[in-house]
Design brief:
By secondary structure, the protein is an alpha/beta fold. It is about 40% helix and about 15% strand. The chain has a single domain, classed as Metal-dependent hydrolases (TIM Barrel), CATH 3.20.20.140. The radius of gyration is 18 Å and the shape is globular.
Amino acid sequence: MMKRIDSHHHLWDLKAVHYPWLMEFGKPRFFGDPTPIQRDYLLEEHRAISQNHGFVASVHIQVGAEDGLAEARWVDQVAHANPDWPMVQVAFCDLAASDREGQLDQFQALASVVGVRQIVGRSPEEDAKNGTNALIADPEFRAGLQSLASRGLSFDLQLIPELMEPMGKVLAQVPDLQVVLCHAGSTYDRSPDGIAKWAAGLAHLSVLPNVSCKLSGLGMFDHDWTADTVRPIAEVVMEQFGPDRVMFGSNFPVCSLSSTFDDLLERHMAIVPAEHHGKVFHDNAALFYFNESQSS
């Protein structure tokens, strides 16, 4: 069986770390009603549903904890307690904060931390309220990105299609920073016009050689998704980024709202050309996150 790496998943222990959004019941999110996942989701469960499919390692992505450092320390403890399951993490840091460098020093003291995610764009409604997308024009945010590059940390980029063009201009100024786009750029508008606008925006990121893309979160904005409904998205991603800059991520347990793990993997296997499975499901994530270049 081919070895696989899950480049994007979450874990949470509601007794160990406080996640405000997981404790706020009855509030729909950009990706739907979170009620079924407002419970503990631990590594044991994630391993149980994935390792029979050849998964041998994974990448934990920060997921809205009240205290990003507390989350990172808990994940680091989980990683150290499970040496037979290599797991690295992408932590949250406010890159525009005045104490950014001190925060990054603390994160880098944790062996499992290899990168940072600070969400730039969530949904048009949420961004209008919290102003997250103002980060793009903030010189301190740009300085934070440059600091990541100098420290050898990567950046997980999450935003919506409307923000891709200006973000591309920012990332062009940080060519040494390794960036990976989460969830194929959040294609929340699946109409023909929405897909066309997304694809045009994506080109502002894919043209940059230091930017990769995750095929993840494809069911977040269509809980009735199938391989056929998301195939156009996958085809654009593969065409623009090429097989060396695309990686699979389950986005579990968030994407358990729209499919089982088995179905999710089967659909991704169907939409990625078979000759590229080794790179997309293992090699690219191994190189990007684990600095391993050996082939699966």
